[in-house]
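Contributing: when you submit paired examples, paste them exactly as shown. First protein:
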Amino acid sequence: MIKKIFIISLFSINSIFSQSGQVFYEAISKKFPETNENKADAYITELENSKILLELKFNKTTSYFAKTNLNKSDDYNFGEEALSILIGYEELFYSLKEKSLYLNSDEILVKKPSNHNWNISSESKKIDNYLCYKATCTESYTARDGKTKERVITAWFCPELPYSFGPLEFNGLPGLILELEKNGNKVVAKSIVLSNKEIELKIPNKKTITKEQYDKKIKENAQF
């Protein structure tokens, strides 16, 4: 069940849709084929049993997405670390006006366009009590063999919640993304808090480079 909370003062409930919100998502690992080899692999078992709590904050123009520090532990957890890599978790800012993503690295920001070519279908389903519609897009990635390949991303968005934001680097749909599937792994909304008070979100003011420049420096093992 998705927990939904409205924080309002003297404004009408309708006015809340032009303000801000906070969503907690849970990342869940895909299930691997039940072979004898997989059953005996403790790492696969740990990965399948792992979950990660993620947080999205947004206002009218900007969103911020990151792994939440709730239930944070100093103990190393292979399953959580592997799941973070599989879903492609990064600390991200998204500018709705610029249609750009900003990866927040230690000393720099990496800017790249957010231009997902979504295909929205008439297929729908209920997530908790929200009517959501299916949208898909393709994403290019570099496989282990060094070749560029494509994979399908599936999102379920809710027009009842008219915010063009979502988890990871996915956004731009006519409704908040409540569920997303990538590589068979899922990111599912668990709690939504909506407020008529503006959440202040500022993209950090530090050195910014493009994704192409970033990839080139990584390839050359150069300093930023």
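Second protein:
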Amino acid sequence: MFIARHKASNRRGFTLLEVMLAVAILGMMSLAIFRFVQANLTALSLSSETVAADAQYDGLRDLLTAHWQSLSPTRAAMIGEVFKLSDRERDEIKWNCGAGPGMLTRYAPTDFTVTLRLEPEKKGDHLDLGLSRKPQKASDLGEVNESWVPLIKNVTSLQISYFDSNTNTWLPKWPGGGRLPWLVKIEVGRPDSAVPWETVIPLRRTPY
């Protein structure tokens, strides 16, 4: 009686070394994919934060442009002062107005003196850029105290210059005298940029 022998199969299993190499390669690929995705998510997050911050500054420019172009020179009595503290520019600009964009309200019982300036945060060491609103006199609603409206949080400096059409030069301060400057240049130091944000606001409407 003959017993047929089965031919030995040429197939064989993976060795331990091959399995370890495959796992190592998969691990390296997974790590590379993870870092790629993480880098893209970080870039998207930073981009979103930058866009949001830029929108705040654009809103400030639009607010001041619309309001300052509506001011009456004699009633506004605009005054610009130069201040500096700890080597940081902390200029201030002050003007008078009633209800409207400058007050950030439609219902102001009396004329107010509004000041664009920096104010330290109540909790923390950061400076906020905003509007200080103080009534010029008591109203029928009773005595109203000075109020503070923050516009942009965490800025490092505020420098304001004024273009005088009579002398054709930029001035570091504005004396008032019933006149408005033709242009106001505002530079705001940003903690997220080595270059300060800058805008030039015309106080007279241009045809374009």
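If you have annotations for the second protein, write them as plain sentences, like these:
The two ends are 110 Å apart (CA to CA).
The CA atoms of residues 138 and 144 lie 7 Å apart.
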